[in-house]
Amino acid sequence: MATKATAAFFMGSQHIYIDEIDKRIIHFLQKHHVMTLATSSDNTPWCCSCFYVYDDKLNKFLTTSDLDTRHIAEVMKQPMVSGAVALETTMIGKIQGVQFTGTMTQIKGEEYNLSKKAYIRRFPVAAFAELQLWSIIPDFIKFTDNRLGFGKKMIWQNKSS
Predict the structure, then answer these.
(1) C or N terminus of the chain, fewer CB within 10 Å?
(2) How many other CB atoms are found less than 10 A from the CB of residue 28?
(3) In this predicted structure, what is the pLDDT of residue 11?
(4) pTM
(5) Cβ distance 115 to 133 under 8 Å?
(6) What digits encode the pLDDT tens for the residues 36-56?
C-alpha cells in the first residue's frame, strides 16, 4: 500500500518520514535475526549482540538475556536502548540496515507464554533453555536501503512518544 509519503521516497528525497511501519522494514527485520543492542550507565556506553524476533503486529522486538549480563543490569537502571540490524555486504548498492531507539522491559505474566512461543518458533533450540525474555518497544526506526538509491532512508517515529 503506497502512501503519499512512500511515493515521495522514490522521487529523490533522501529522507522520508512515514506514519506506519513500511512493509520493507518489516520484511528486512523478519529476514534477519541478530541485532546490536546499545545500553548505557553512568555516562558509559555498552553494546552487545542479541538474537531477536520482530513482531510486526505489536511492533516490538523479542530477545532473551540473563539477568546477570552487563546490558540487562544497565537496562534495569535505564530502560532506554538503541539498536541496529545490518545486512553485511561489501556492495554499496545493496546496503540495508535499521537503527532504532526504544524502551526495553522484561516480559512477565500472560505475555510471557505468547512471547516464548514466538521466540521458540524462530529459534527452536531455545526450547531447551530457561528463558528470560525481554521486549523492546521502538519509538524511532530508521531504515536505510541503498537498493532504492544511495543513502535512501525511511524514518518512522511514534507520534505518542
Answers:
(1) N
(2) 20
(3) 47
(4) 0.88
(5) yes
(6) 999 999 999 999 999 999 999
- The set of cell numbers assigned to 117 is 512461543
28 within 8 A of 143, measured Cβ to Cβ:
yes
CATH T-level fold of 14-151: Pnp Oxidase; Chain A (2.30.110)
Nearest alpha-carbon partner for 41 in 84, 82, 76, 83:
76
CB count within 10 Å of CB 108 equals 10
| Predicted confidence (pLDDT) per residue in 100-155, tens digit | 999 999 999 999 999 999 999 999 999 999 999 999 999 999 999 887 778 889 99
Which residues lie below 8 Å from residue 18, measured CB to CB, with a gap of 6+?
3, 5, 6, 154, 155, 156
What are 98's strand-pairing partners?
85, 143
Backbone φ and ψ for 69, nearest 5 degrees, come out as -85, 155
